Amino acid sequence: MPELADMRLFVQTVATGSLSAAGRELGFSPAVGSKRLARLEAALGTRLLQRSSRRLSLTDEGAIYFERCQAILADVEEAEAAIGRGSLGPRGVLRVSSPVALGRRWIGPVMARFALDNPGVSVHLSLSDSVVDLIEGGFDCAVRIGGAEDSRLVVRTLAPNRRVVCSAPAYLADREPPRTPADLSTHDCIVMTHNLSGNADWRFRPVSSPASAWTTVRIRGRMVADNGEQAHDWALAGLGLVRRSIWDVMTELGDGRLVEVLPEWTGESSPIQVVYTSRRFLPTRTRQFIDLLVSQFASQPEP
Q1: C or N: which end of the chain has fewer Cβ atoms within 10 Å?
Q2: Could you tell me how many helices (H) and strands (E) the chain has, helices first?
Q3: Residue closest to 232 by CA, chosen among 188, 166, 178
Q4: Phi and psi for 62 in degrees, rounded to 5?
């Protein structure tokens, strides 16, 4: 039967992306770590990790075993805590992924509160506008705009979300605001794309006619970034129109640093959702954190 120490090594290897790094954190030399991982795979009769000179990746069997190991180790940690302190408080490391802007404005503060309320938990927050693989990255959950297309993931909606086009008042000081989506072609636009192509398709339909067909406008950005926060900063500096999730610009729209244009037109709705790998094998720390996220977003007025 596999030993808990070997399970911990396996989980830590996936979380850090390196057998050597996992060994250092757990007090194993690389040679001992390699032998322990080989012993674990031999005991299970299957390969858990594909190894190359550059990276480690989970096999299909490894992904299933990783999910189960996370839950088992979390239960063990909580059982040990119950004996030591008479408490069943969550333990371990909570690893969360989030888009940059949403993470800084909303998810980071929730994680700070969770850490204060649960001293037995360490929190790791990864901010990236790219969609990460939860299992390969060793994350407990991820907050996303628009949810997940991966059928392996459980999805829980946190809040509705719409995209708005906005700019700093200074940008519109000597320009006529766009009245229709077609007018965007005469304006400087700030585009956020992962491949820095400079082009993006923005879709709209009239607020007064939500059942009407979408109007698609090809945007050619003068300012292009692969990071939403940079695009946000450029808009605040008066460099053009930007399309952002309402949750990313809510504060600035409220205090006047940004103003919405095309208010009679609505963009596509992309709800804010939290995704995770299993409802059945969810560690207590992850379940409680997700519940806190839900309550925090529910307490906000709908934008």
Answers
A1: N
A2: 11, 15
A3: 166
A4: -65, -40
Quick one: 97 and 83 in the same domain? no
Q: What is the DSSP letter of 105?
A: I
For residues 74 and 83, what is the distance between their CA atoms, to the nearest angstrom?
15
| CATH assignment at residue 288 | 3.40.190.10
Question: What CATH code is carried by the domain that includes residue 25?
Answer: 1.10.10.10
Cα 270 from chain centroid? 14
- Full domain range(s) for residue 204: 163-266
Residues 167 and 255 in one domain: yes
Question: What pLDDT band is residue 57 in, cutting at 50, 70 and 90?
Answer: confident
Tell me the backbone φ, ψ of residue 40, rounded to 5 degrees: -65, -45
Q: Which amino acid is at 197?
A: S
Strands 223-225 and 189-192: parallel
Q: Position 78: which residue type?
A: E
Tens-digit pLDDT profile for residues 221-266: 889 998 889 999 999 999 999 999 999 999 999 999 999 999 999 8
**What are the DSSP calls for 17-61, one per residue?**
T-HHHHHHHHT--HHHHHHHHHHHHHHHTS--EEE-SS-EEE-HH
- Say whether 198 sits in a helix, a strand or coil: coil
Q: Which residue has the tokens 């858990």?
A: 48
Spatial separation of the C-alpha atoms in residues 201 and 223, rounded to whole Å: 15
The first and second tokens of residue 302, run together, are 């709908």
